[in-house]
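User: Fold this, then the next.

Assistant: Folding the first:
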Amino acid sequence: MFNKKNIKKDLSVLKRLLPYILPYKKRLIMAVISMAVVSALTGALAYIVKPLINNIFVTKSYTGLMMIPFLVILIFLVKNIFYYAEFYYIGSVGQNIIRSIRDEVYSAVVKLPVSRLNKIPTGVLIARITYDINIIQRTVSDSVSAVMKDVLTITVLLAVVIYMDFYLAIAVLALFPVVILPVTKLGKKARKTSTDTQTEMGNITKFLDETISNLRTVKSYNMEELEIGRFKKLSDNLYRFFMRMTKIRGLTVPFVELIGGVSVAVIIFIGGLQVIKFGYTPGNFFSFLTAMLLLYEPVKSLSRLNNSLQEGIAAGTRIFEILDEKPEDESGTTPVPNEITSLEISGLYFNYDKGKDENYDLKNINIKVKKGQIAAIAGYSGAGKTTVSMLIPRFYEPDDGEIKFNGINIKKFRLKDLRDAISYVSQNVVLFNESIRFNIEYGSSNKSIDEVVNAAKLAFAHNFIMSLPDGYDTVVDESGLRLSGGEKQRILIARAFLKNSPVLILDEATSSLDGESEKQIQNALFGSEENRNGLCGNKIALIIAHKLSTVKHADIIYVLEKGEIAESGTHEELIKRNGIYKNLLLKQME
């Protein structure tokens, strides 16, 4: 009936939740005390039915009539005070546990290597942090409360019924094992259905993330109806899984109700027979019946708990898969030199698909750049230019070869220090839904507003920023939709100016700029041809560009073709060579 392997796996998931509970053990103890009082008073309610029937309705005692109603009110008053305390403490424990898990999951996601993040859809990660954690929250709150409170209540009521009539209690309780088998089977189905539901929820979140962020593309191609149809298909799948779960939950309660009804019928028959033939008092009978009816509710609650527990275990399994992911390799311990005088890439090989080492995306890359020099990487789309730029901050790790600062392999440096030493402007222009000042300051702490303004001026962004409603305090809409592509790009360049790191990597950093803006940015970056007084003048600069107007100022240009360096030299030297670079230049001039 029970699969030992599955039980062991379930227990391992539940066991991993324990460390999150222990910091709040004092609140948990208070909740248990409150539950114990509530359970004891529930048993007392069943027990006082006996004197209620015998002393008032049978012997017609005025003393009993005065005392018992007062006692009932007192029991209910005290019971509900402790019920509130139980609800508060268990809710506090549950919310704190979920907050800790949510924080850990987000931290784990943020610390995942870029190579791993690229393989997990954003929507799936969002579903883990929101939907899955909400399920665990419900499971923890329901389970901890139900298991403790219901088990305590069942224990007290069992003691009451066994004390009242041992043989009648055994006869009735013999029916309870009948519940176990079907409830267990329904629980297994609930877990599988919950897993399928969570997968489908991840698919919907992924779909929404993709389509809503690309609605302009959808509208420009008149694909609204197609996307609505695709969403309806996903929504229908999710509906079917939810309905399957609803059916499972719906079957559990009626089955337990049926067993409860049979139990009451048995009590009425056997108890009534004892009253009629063997002198069993009506008080004893109704007290026993009340205890059994009160016992039924926590038993039903525990049966519902099985489905909730299975959903929580399925969600917990997926959450812990994220927590078990290996974070970025931060094994380096060497501090980055205060002054970086050289960047060298030697014999570098890299492949995105590690299972196909014979087809490298980058092959035998050798690049040298000294402080004060500007190196550029040019080539057709797909040649591997951006890949080179992402290996330097260690977003990816090379399969072979080395990347060195001052002759030291960058793997030996502390990862945080390495990235602090690099100002990286990506071709993916994305701004945070925060103020412009926040976006420029991002990655640069303790900067004054004057320094922010100066960086914006160097990036030729100050004038358009001041034309916005709140200037530097203007909040950028999600994905920077209120700004043009060139304006967003200038904010990113301003961020690089403000960070002012010794190594500068510009990956298509001026691709969205018009000719005049690009010329201004180039002057800010490179200075004049006679005087290298721009941002790159005292740095190691690596420029990745498809537009050759950006790279012609470079001291050396490396031309990539199918992941290999096919040519290298200055702008003039490469034109004279009449090779790939000149051909690329002529095509751009057409």
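Now the next one, as you asked:
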Amino acid sequence: MTAPTLRRDAGSLGLLFASISGMIGSGWLFSALNAAKIAGPASLISWVLGGAAVLLLAFVYAELSTMFPRPGAVIIFPQLCFGDLSAQIMSWVNFLAYVVVAPVEAVAVVSYTANFAPALTTGTTGVLSNIGLAAAVGLMALFLVVNLLAIRLVLAVNNAITWWKLAVPALTAIMIISVHFRAANFYQFGFAPAGVGGIFQAVSGSGILFAFLGFRQAIELAGESANPARNLPFAIVGSVLLCLLLYLGLQLAFIGALGPENLTHGWAAVKFPGISGPFAGLASMLGLPWLAAALYADAGISPGGTGVIYNTTAGRVLYATAEAGMLPKYFANLTPSGVPLRSLGLAFFAGLLFLLPLPSWRLLIGYISSIGVLAYGVGPVVLFCFRETLPERDFARPFRLAAAWLIAPLAFIVGNLVVFWAGAVVTNHLFGGLLAAFIIYCGWQLFNHRTLRHLQWKGAAWMLPYFGGLWLITWLGPLHGRGLLNNTDGAAVIAVFSLAILALARLCAMPDPELAKARFGQLG
């Protein structure tokens, strides 16, 4: 009897909508308000910077994902380039970045529902009550149940939800702009009240980056596409561009909708009725109760759809990690319909571990913003190295990124700038957690093997100076750091540092083309 395999039923539209659904979740409901508070009308520039940063990464991943059209491809990249130890480290980063999204979206749905059922939260703090916590767990279980369907059916459900998720924010922007648009808001209270620093801080600190983080959903489903060379670049790049236009329209609408009475104390203290549900509150304030009702409905549908699709891809990442030998083979099992049930179950229970101690959207979003930015950083490094270790004369690129020698380093620099802009509190949490995980892992390996010499240290040698240096530069920076570097100095240091790390990573990359070819062949 033939062993079950992942089905290749994901077409270009299904992959495009998977990435869009991953992006349009709870983030857009809050990010316009948060960005305006931090950067004022200059938050429009923040959205462009955030979109440009993610678009650079999207181009990088378009080439990588078509070379390795497999589920959980983000684990394959570092493993093939730097060996098992590097892949193990990045598997932790990606695992943590993915499994926490389902709890975030479940909490968002329950929090909005609390407008009509106050017993779901404990008051104005947004922390879920015991009843609300039970409801969030129930929603996470529903995400899991949907994912028990074959991938074709999961994506069909997601496609239906995504049409709604596109229509409601687009309609919101159009209606609010058409009903009330006060151009004076863009200059009367200061276009950039917090200066350049506020523009940069809004990219990482307002939810802008979180609103874009879903573009990689198509990559994780690559192994279930019949024509990844055509479908993946279309889905990855198209989703980022489409969502950037949508988010800019929403930010423009939010800024123009406010009256002078809402800004008497400036952008940092903007206030209006219903601000806890920003766009629904604006719709009610502008005499659009039907739109407010649609937005409250969307507060359940958009986060719910994102929770479903992230649960889908989290299961695929864990499946790929187990297949690569970095989790027990038990989790590489598929059902007869090709669903990685055990990996989905692990993702569900891991998500509960984040939900129980952090039962509010704001607490969870602070964590995911910090871990999510790092999960993308390995892509440009791998692409930069692959151009030499896997030369094109031997390894075809179904999609070849033009000017990769420029775009890959630029994407790496921009990705590191996003971490720098997030500030020292974020990096303390992020790198402290990774260090603890690494120490525990080494202890386990030492206990089982009585030595650590079997670990592929050479391939991972660039990661210690990378993580440590990025933490140090941010600690010296202006946001919750020592203040010895301002935004301009910090950007220059980050650029030089990033290029140095790229050069070091190239020296650590796999030096044996025959071994690379053998492993590439196993993936093909």
